[in-house]
Amino acid sequence: MKRALAFVAVCGLAIIVAPTVRAQGDGGYKLVPNWPKLPGGVYFGLKEPPPPPAEREAQAAARRARGDAPSGGGGGNAGGPQNQPGISGLAIDQNDRIYAFNRGPKPVMVFDRDGNLLMSGADQEINGKTINPSWQHSGTVDWEGNVYIIERDAHRIVKLSPKLDKFLLQLGTTNERGTDATHFDLPSGIAVLHNGNIIVTDGYGNNRVVMFSKDGKFIKQIGKGAGGPQDKGTGNSEWVLPHKLAVDAAENLYIIDRENHRVQVFDKNLNYLRQFANEGWNPWDIGISRKGDDGLAFIADHALERVHKISLKDGKILATWGKQGRGPGEFDWVHGIVVDSRGAVYAADTYGQRLQKFVPGAPASR
Questions:
Q1: Which of these, 363, 346, 353, lies nearest to 35 by C-alpha position?
Q2: pTM for the structure as a whole
Q3: 107: left (phi > 0), else alpha (psi -120 to 50), else beta?
Q4: At 118, which helix (H) or strand (E)?
């Protein structure tokens, strides 16, 4: 018997909440083994892997017992270490090149669909400061191939040329937090539209989403007020940690409202359209193909360390795979997700320090 979607009122707001019945199975998605192919001496994150979950929790419990303040960039990582290692985010360009934003020696690593490392870099001084890879949070690639890197804890976003060798633009003021047009407070996600307009989720410190022109001029923001902890809210266009986002073919923006456990949807001018949620999930990232016209997206869900295939129309979960762990097809803080033009899904975790590829209903050699 089919169950209807539920409409739940929160502070006078109707949210589409998908049924609690989960999708039946993984949709045929299979892990591609030995992907990517890292050259000798190249690695994601830390050379020595971080402790497993049980040991991390014991360390966090000890800190809590001592009364130590929560750490983790000021953004909901209470009890964890200050900097989570591994891969903080993923992006994909129109040629299916996958960009891993790596908390390791090379802040940006670029792969083709076959897992070959094509390029790495962004470790040089950029606009007077070298990126601290442990402060990196995510990034994107625009329609001209330029690469944007979020150095979260430096409160800035830098734009580099396609070969990662030339500095082109900076948003935010280095090492200065704020709520105005020239400052961020621990920014978290970014997308670039066809016209070059830049959308930034200024998430951890400021609960706002900001639009800039191609040349970095402030256009508008959406949020309760100026942006800041006092501006947390559950209404339309309000946030409790806007985290990451993705864009469809119509340039609608699907923005993760992380601590409200929902996805809010806006048009390309940042006008509110709708939202959806699923009971029990904790979405951290959303991936839509660059073509973006199939009505599908993929969610990196921290709740039980899973990946969901969803319908963009209503958020309904169509397939689910993964669980907590470091074995094949498992995740330890799944924090980045993208999908290529052939439907292959790439998911990256921080503590797991891995980038894994999954293909739908095809041999793993694809």
A1: 346
A2: 0.90
A3: alpha
A4: strand 117-121
